[in-house]
Design goal:
Elements (H helix, E strand, L loop, with lengths): L1 H24 L1 H25 L4 H15 L2 H12 L5 H29 L1 H22 L8 H17 L2
Helix pairs in contact: 1-2, 1-3, 2-3, 2-4, 2-6, 5-6
């Protein structure tokens, strides 16, 4: 019960961190920082399992993972989904993005127990690697939407597609 209350407090506090910093730091920076923090938490849990460490350290590692998730991917992806698509495709694109998010939420939640039963170290290492890959993806491919209007995003994607067409 105490752990549930602690996780609830962490979730609320770090969601508030996201709310109060998203317009200062930007969506992209919070997603990258969150991904790296989540990777650290996941790799620490994996290392604890590998070394047979029980108790407070793996629990704190899970809290680190949850805190970084709640200050980044938890709330920020919804903001980004609402802002990133140009007006011409917004409705359909948002629907597809949300559908993919729920599909992958299902995949993670349905495969984690089997992965954990196979090897907790493998499961957490795999998720840590995915977190690092998400940081790399955001850094390389996701445009910052902070301070941009919907018209700015339309122009950005038009410029991006024009550049792709010009490549040999």
């Amino acid at each position: 019960m105490v752990q549930t209350v602690i996780m609830g407090i962490i979730n609320i506090l770090f969601t508030l961190v996201a709310i109060f910093t998203v317009d200062r730091f930007g969506r992209k920076h919070l997603l990258i920082i969150g991904s790296i923090g989540m990777a650290v938490g996941a790799f620490c849990v994996a290392l604890c399992d590998h070394m047979g460490i029980k108790g407070i350290i793996p629990v704190l590692s899970v809290i680190v993972y949850a805190a970084f998730f709640m200050m980044s991917w938890g709330p920020i992806c919804w903001v980004l989904i609402a802002e990133i698509f140009p007006n011409t495709i917004r409705g359909k694109a948002v629907a597809i993005a949300v559908a993919f998010q729920w599909v992958f939420n299902y995949l993670v939640s349905s495969t984690f127990p089997a992965l954990y039963d196979f090897s907790p170290m493998f499961a957490y290492s795999l998720y840590g690697i995915i977190c690092l890959l998400s940081a790399l993806f955001v850094w390389k491919s996701v445009p910052e939407t902070k301070g941009k209007t919907l018209e700015d995003m339309t122009a950005l994607w038009k410029k991006h597609s024009d550049q792709k067409l010009k490549r040999p």
